[in-house]
C-alpha cells in the first residue's frame, strides 16, 4: 500500500549448479563416460493435478528460472567439493569446468493460466545439460506456481464482495525458509496480491509494501491510546491501528476513533484499522458501522488471522466488511487441500529425434512422448476453452482429439481460433526477450483469467478445462509403447 | 550414504536486516522518535500446539539464527531503499547506519526436545533491536523445527521395523524455494535423517549425500539392461538401480540381478535397488526374496514415492522389507496434519523490568509475562517428565504448579532432578560458545528423545508431556492482568 519506487530487480536465483540432486550429477557423468552427453534431449515440465482441487493454475517462476539457466557455471570450489565425494573422475570434472547451459527453452510466458498435463516448459539441450537443471527448475516453478495460484484464489474470493477487497501477503514469519518467504512474496504478487509485508521482497522485486504495527507496540506504552497517538504522530498519513491488543470494540475502536479525530484536526486522515482475532464478520461489521457513524467512511478495515480463500469467501458471504485481507501462513506456505507442494515433473520426451516415454502401470504417470506444440483455442467470444498438443500442425474443426491419460475419452474439436501458446524464451542459452517485469506478469494473469469460462475460476467444484492430444501425438504414443515392449521382449 | 568430507560450513542465513516485516521497521522508528528504543525488552519465542498432533518437537535452526543475529547490519543500499519508501526520517536512517544486534539470547541448545508454551528462546535487548529480528527468527526457527520434527517422526517409524531402516531426504524439487530445500535438508539431518540428495546442502552443511538414478537414465538407453550396465560401469561400488521404469519384477529385478552378478565377477557388489511406484509392501517383499535367493542379502532396498511417517509405519506393519526410506515432498515441505507451518510466536514478556502480556479473549493466545527460567525435571531413572517455568528459583518437591493456559489445571511436583534447561548462547551480540556442529546436534536430539517416556514419541495419540508455571509466575501473571485492566479503566 505504500508506493515503492522499483529499484533494481535483484533476482531470486539459487545460482549454483550444485543446487541439484546428486543423481543428476552421477547421471551426467554416466552420459559423459558413454559419450552420450551431447545427444539432443527434450524434457517436458508439467503437473498432473490441479492444486487445491481447483480449475486452473497461474504459471509463475519462469523469469527466475531463466535467470538461473543463464548464469549457471561450476566454480573451482564446486569442483573441489565434487572431487571430494570420490564419485567423479578427473576428466569429467575438467569438462564441467567449461560447462554452460546452451539449450533452447519453449514455455508459456510467466503469468499465463495453465492446466494439467500440458508441457508448460520444454528444454531442448544436450542431454547432460537438460538433466542437471531438472531439480532447480522444478523447485522454482513448482512453488511459485503454487503460491501464485493460491493468491489468485484469495483474490477471486475477495472480489466476490460487493464492496471489493484486496489481498496482501503477510507470511514471512511462517514461510519455509527465508527464500521461501521471498519466492512467496513474488509469486503472490503474480497471482494478484497488491503488496507484501516483506521488506527485502520489496527491495528485490520492487513490490509495494504493507504494514501496520504489532501488539508489542501497544504493550510497550502505558496505555493503548498513548500507543495509538505515538504511532499516528510518527506516520500521520499512513497509520493503520491494530485494535485487538486489549478489546477490539470496547478499547481498540474507541481509541482509534479518538486518534482519527485528532489526526483530522491536524489535517491528516487515519488510513486504516486492523483486526487480528475474534469473529471477523461480527467485528468488521461493528467496526465499519462505528467508523461510518463517526464520519470516517474512508478508513479501511484490514483483517489477518489465519485467512485463506475459504475463510475470505465465508466472511464475505456472511456480510463481513473487510477491505484488505492480510493472508499469511496459508499463502506463504501454499496451504490447504493438496497444498504445500505442486507435483510438477520433468520427463524425457525425446532423445536424438526419437520419442521417449516412461511406461508404468498407472497411465496418469506416463508422459506424452515427442516434441510437441501446444495450441490454445478461443471461441468467437474470445473465451479460452481448449488446450491441444500436436506434433506441430494447428488443430482444426472436426479433428479427433483425446484425453492425455485416457484414450477412451475423445471428442471432435469445435471451430476455434488457435494460438501457438508457448514461445521460445531462451535460445542457445540466451534469453530471447528482456525479462518481463512483475506488473506485466500480474496483468497477464489477470487478463487471461478473465477470458476463461466463469466456472473455471470457481473455488469449489470448478468447471474442468479441456486438455487433449491430437491424433498425431496419440499415434506416436502408440508406436512408442509398441517399440518399448518389443525392445524389452528382445532384451 | 556416500561419505562426505565435511567442508566449510557456509551457513544458511538471510543476513540482511530487510528480511523483516515492514511494521518492524515502522515500529523501530516509532520507538526511536519516542526515545524508547533503548529500553530493555525481553521477548519469548514459543509455539502453542505440537506439530502433527504429536507429543514432542525437535528444536532446530538455532545456529543459523545466531549467525543471523551476529552479522546483522544495514548497508548503504538498504538505507537508500528505506529512504525511497518515504516513511523514514533522515535521523532514524542515520541511526540505523550504526545499528548492530547487541542483545543477550537465552535458549535451548539446538537439537533438544521441546514442548508447547515453553519459551525456547528469549531475546533481551534494546527494544528496537529485539523488535527487528522477530520475523527472521520466527522464519528460521519455525521451519527448521517443523522439519526436524517431521524427520524424527519418520525415523521413529522406520525404527519400528525388526530389520531397522534409515531415512534420507529427497525433497529438493518439491521444496518451497531453493533455501526452503537447503533449510529442509539441514533440519532433516538434525531430526535423524542420515543423508540428503541435495548437493549444495552437502557442501554447505557437510551432510552425507545419497542418490540413485532417474527414469530418464533408463529411457536414454536402448534397453534397461544396457542402462543398468552403464551405470554399474561408472559406479562399480556405489550403484543403486531404479527398478520401475518398465516393470519392477519382470524387468527391473531380473536385469538388476544380472548386473549384480556381473559386478561380483569383477570384484564389486551392487549397493542397492530402488522402488518408486506400486505396492511397496508386496514389491519390497518380492524383491527382498529375489535378492536373497540369488545370493545378494546385502543389497539394500531403497523406497521413495510420497512417503511420510504414516506410510512408513504401515509398510512396516504389513511386513514390507525396506532398508532406506527416501522421503521427499512430505519432509521438505513438512506436510501432514497441522503441517506446513509451525505457529511459533515471539511475544513481549518484559520491558524496563516490568512484566508485559497481551490480553485476549482466548487464554491460549495470552503470553506468560516476566523474565522466566525454564527447568526440566528428570525422575530417578533419568526419564524426562516435566518442564516448569519460574522467575528464577529451582522447583522443589511439593511445589504447586499450574498449566500455562489454564489455572484450573494444577498439581504438586513430585521429587525430580532439575536442570536449568536453557543457556545463555549469545551475550551482548556475541556468541558464547562456538557453533555446535550438525552431528553433535543430531546426537543431542537422539539422546534426549530416548530419555522421554516412551509414549511421548508415539506417532498417534501420544502421551502429553507436562509443562507448567510455578506459583511465582502465576502470581506475576495475576498482578499483570489486574494492572492492565486498571490502566484501561483509567485511560
TrEMBL record, chains A, B:
<dbReference type="GO" id="GO:0047280">
    <property type="term" value="F:nicotinamide phosphoribosyltransferase activity"/>
</dbReference>
<dbReference type="InterPro" id="IPR040727">
    <property type="entry name" value="NAPRTase_N"/>
</dbReference>
<protein>
    <recommendedName>
        <fullName>Nicotinate phosphoribosyltransferase</fullName>
        <ecNumber>6.3.4.21</ecNumber>
    </recommendedName>
</protein>
<dbReference type="InterPro" id="IPR006405">
    <property type="entry name" value="Nic_PRibTrfase_pncB"/>
</dbReference>
<dbReference type="InterPro" id="IPR007229">
    <property type="entry name" value="Nic_PRibTrfase-Fam"/>
</dbReference>
<dbReference type="InterPro" id="IPR041619">
    <property type="entry name" value="NAPRTase_C"/>
</dbReference>
<dbReference type="GO" id="GO:0004516">
    <property type="term" value="F:nicotinate phosphoribosyltransferase activity"/>
</dbReference>
<dbReference type="InterPro" id="IPR041525">
    <property type="entry name" value="N/Namide_PRibTrfase"/>
</dbReference>
<dbReference type="GO" id="GO:0034355">
    <property type="term" value="P:NAD+ biosynthetic process via the salvage pathway"/>
</dbReference>
<dbReference type="Pfam" id="PF17956">
    <property type="entry name" value="NAPRTase_C"/>
</dbReference>
<dbReference type="Pfam" id="PF17767">
    <property type="entry name" value="NAPRTase_N"/>
</dbReference>
<keyword id="KW-0808">Transferase</keyword>
<dbReference type="InterPro" id="IPR036068">
    <property type="entry name" value="Nicotinate_pribotase-like_C"/>
</dbReference>
<keyword id="KW-0436">Ligase</keyword>
<dbReference type="GO" id="GO:0005829">
    <property type="term" value="C:cytosol"/>
</dbReference>
<comment type="similarity">
    <text>Belongs to the NAPRTase family.</text>
</comment>
<comment type="pathway">
    <text>Cofactor biosynthesis; NAD(+) biosynthesis; nicotinate D-ribonucleotide from nicotinate: step 1/1.</text>
</comment>
<comment type="function">
    <text>Catalyzes the first step in the biosynthesis of NAD from nicotinic acid, the ATP-dependent synthesis of beta-nicotinate D-ribonucleotide from nicotinate and 5-phospho-D-ribose 1-phosphate.</text>
</comment>
<keyword id="KW-0662">Pyridine nucleotide biosynthesis</keyword>
<feature type="domain" description="Nicotinate phosphoribosyltransferase C-terminal">
    <location>
        <begin position="372"/>
        <end position="476"/>
    </location>
</feature>
<dbReference type="Pfam" id="PF04095">
    <property type="entry name" value="NAPRTase"/>
</dbReference>
<feature type="domain" description="Nicotinate/nicotinamide phosphoribosyltransferase">
    <location>
        <begin position="167"/>
        <end position="333"/>
    </location>
</feature>
<keyword id="KW-0597">Phosphoprotein</keyword>
<keyword id="KW-0328">Glycosyltransferase</keyword>
<feature type="domain" description="Nicotinate phosphoribosyltransferase N-terminal">
    <location>
        <begin position="18"/>
        <end position="142"/>
    </location>
</feature>
<dbReference type="InterPro" id="IPR013785">
    <property type="entry name" value="Aldolase_TIM"/>
</dbReference>
